[in-house]
Amino acid sequence: MIGKKWFYRLAAVVLTMGMGHVVVAQDAEAEPAAPADGAAAVKKKPSWEKSAAMGLTLTDGNTDTLLFTAKVDASKKWQQNEFVTGASITYGEDDQVKNNESINAFAQYNRLLTERIFALARVAFLHDDIADVDYRVTASLGVGYYFIKKERTFLSAEIGPGVVFEKQGGEASTYFTVRLAENFEHKFSERARVWQFVEFLPQVDDVENFIVNAEIGAESALTDKVKLQVYLQDTFDNRPAPGREENDFKLVSALAMTF
To answer: Looking at the domain assignment, is residue 235 inside a domain?
Structure first.
C-alpha cells in the first residue's frame, strides 16, 4: 500500500517530468542557418514532444469524494528512431474510503527497418492497490508495421514475445506471453486529435490467462499551450486476484499543458 502522501509526491514528480526537468531534455535549438550562397537551409534538430495533464474532482457535503489523476507523455522521432514514454497516477476516495490507487508507466523504442516496418522493445509497469496488484512488469520485443503513416494520421500493429513478472493477490509469478497490439492516432489540426490503443497479452502455455489493456481519447486546444483531454482507460484481467473484479474502467477529464 502506497498511501495518499506518496501519491501527492509522485504527482509532483510526474508533473515535473512533463515540464522537462527530470527525464526529458529541453527542446533542441535550431542549427545555424545555411550560408547565404544559395545552399539549402539546415533543418531544425528533432525535439521532444511533451505534455502533462492533471484532473481533480472534489465533493463535500452529503458526499465526500476525491479523485486525482496526473499523466505525462513524451515522444521523439529522429532518423530511423522513434521513442515514446508515459506515466500516470490515480488516487481516489469516497467518504474517506480509498477506491482508487494506481500507477502506470511505459517506455517503447522503435527502430525503422523500412519506411513502414520496425523492430521494437517495450517495458511497462503497473501497480494497482484496489485490484491487489503489487506490481506487474511486462517486457517485450517484437516487430511492427504501419498500415497508415501520414503527417497527421498513423495506424500500426505490433506482435512479439514477452515476459510478465507480477505479484497479484499476494502471490508472485512469472510467465511468457505473446504481445499483440494496435495503435491509432489522427490529428484533425494542430489543435485537435483523437487516439486509440489496445494490446492483448495471453499466457503462452495457458491462453485462458490473459490481460487486455485499452485506451481511447480525444484532445482539443483551449489555448496555444493548454488543452482539454477526455480519455477512457480499460484493463481486463481474465484471472484477477481473489475477490476482485475482472474489469477496471476509468473515464478521465483533464487539463493538459504542452511544452
So the answer is: yes
